[in-house]
Amino acid sequence: TNLSAILVGPNIHCSKKLGNFSFEDDQEKADRHLSALELILSRLHDFSGPLESTFLDADFPFSSEQQASMELLVSCHQHLRDNYLQQLDHQQHRKITLKKKQLALLVYRALQQMGQMQLYTSEAYLNPSAGFWTDCYRIFEFAEQMQLTKLPVAVDGHERQSIEQLFGSILLFALTSSNQFRPREMQKIFQLLGRAITVAGTEVSADLSQDQSKGLYVFDLHRDAPPVRFDDRPQDMPPADAGAYRYFNVLPVARSIHDFLQQPQEIGTGQLRAINSALYTRVVKTLSQVKCRKFTRLRERRNIDGIIGLTNVLNHLRNSQGFALEEKADHTVKIYDPRISGQWGTLDVDLVPLDNEVLFQQPKMHSSHGGIDAHTRRIFDAAPALVSGQQTEIWEQSEKTGGDSGNAVFFDDFAIQDSCILGYSVVCDARNIKVRIGDIIGFLSDKERLEIGLIRRIGAQCPEGKIQLGVELLAMESKLVHLTGPSRKKGL
User: Which residues are CB-neighbours of 36 under 8 A, at least 6 positions away?
Assistant: First the structure.
């Protein structure tokens, strides 16, 4: 009954039902269960997209609904992984006999679920749960023992990555410092690494004969810890010939991504090309250790007042420098958005949520054909944010303002953990703010000087109710400037 409920249509109870799914010892039933798992996985893909979209472009910290969506996805993939591993356990204990291709598919699928769990937790700026790396290494070690690591796995009738390449992409993603990216960027990087490692052909080896000069990483199959640089390995590691150690080099993958960037047609057109190019370049620099800390950080324990958001920074500078906001002489454009720098008028266009274009157009279509009757109006009112035409959340910035005029600025308290000439590491109360990678932040160093920075990293592994921000300083002191034209008298 539970299995039928899943196959008819996935729902929010999917993870609990998967947990009750068990295997039988009978060979024929085991084959049917494998087919059922593949069908369940395809259904999971159908509804994971809408669930992930609830937090893919969200500010951090997530709302309770967004957090629940993330946790549900992780739970579903975890239960699927457990079922694949249970079938592998039956194989080890000779309860069933699987062909080599079936066995490779089971290992591949188990690792695939581990990768999805890693991605979703990273999108919430969390570290993998306890035991994550131990499970990954255990699956890969089993594949080594069965000589499956280099076997291309056939999925949906097409040969995909080998188990070694899939495992390598999981290792690589852990080395990209994902907390420097937004969730949607992490999704792109996750896909990119899978493609790049297939081209580069990076191997995970127990042999230390690889070049140790740069880019070499090591991990212990029996430790619940991600890979570390060979030069930075813990001092308590056993001799290098220990059988539990595996080595791999990230430089071939970095070169593969760099070569990929030389093919503009592969990374989009127009502005999308520039955005993707900048994103992938950061990945290359991170993997190749080109972009690393160059200045010593000094530990500090002091508080500082700060404001988040470009509009708040502009309002503070306007208030402190005595600028007055005056209306334009020309009132041809009547719609203004104070959150847009320079008070430019917003375009008379609607931004429509992806895949909801038809539903969004329905009210206008009905209005143009004699109006909307009461019954139809009740249907549209059921989703006011979608069909009202006021997609204000698209323009909202992660900033905190106050006052009816929109010019009042409230400062938040930030605790500085360490600092260097280029930036700060600060901790703040997560209940008071919403942030994204790339947000502008201002620190009031004294009563008159405002330092301007950019949020480069987000860390959620802090005491409850706190988040950690890595801030790159752009300017030690700031002044407000503006452009003017014939339609403006003076001021801003």
Answer: 3, 7
How do residues 18-50 score in pLDDT, each as one tens digit? Answer: 444 444 455 666 677 788 888 888 888 888 888
DSSP β-bridge partners for residue 220: 245
User: Strands 412-420, 408-409: parallel, antiparallel or unpaired by DSSP?
Assistant: unpaired
Q: Residue 463 CB: number of other CB atoms within 10 A?
A: 7
> Degrees (nearest 5) of the Cα angle 279, 283, 286?
135
Q: What is the pLDDT of residue 331?
A: 46
What pLDDT sits at residue 395?
45
Alpha-carbon 80 to chain mean position: 22
Under a CB-based contact definition with an 8 Å cutoff, are residues 474 and 453 in contact?
A: yes
Q: Which residue has the higher pLDDT, 409 or 309?
A: 309
Residues in the chain: 492
Backbone angles phi, psi at 156, to 5 degrees: 60, 35
pTM for the whole structure: 0.75
Q: Are the CB atoms for 189 and 279 separated by under 8 Å?
A: yes
Closest CA to 155 of 147, 163, 167: 163
- Cβ-in-10-Å burial (0-12, 13-18, 19+) of 260 comes to middle
Most distant pair of Cα atoms in the chain: their distance: 86
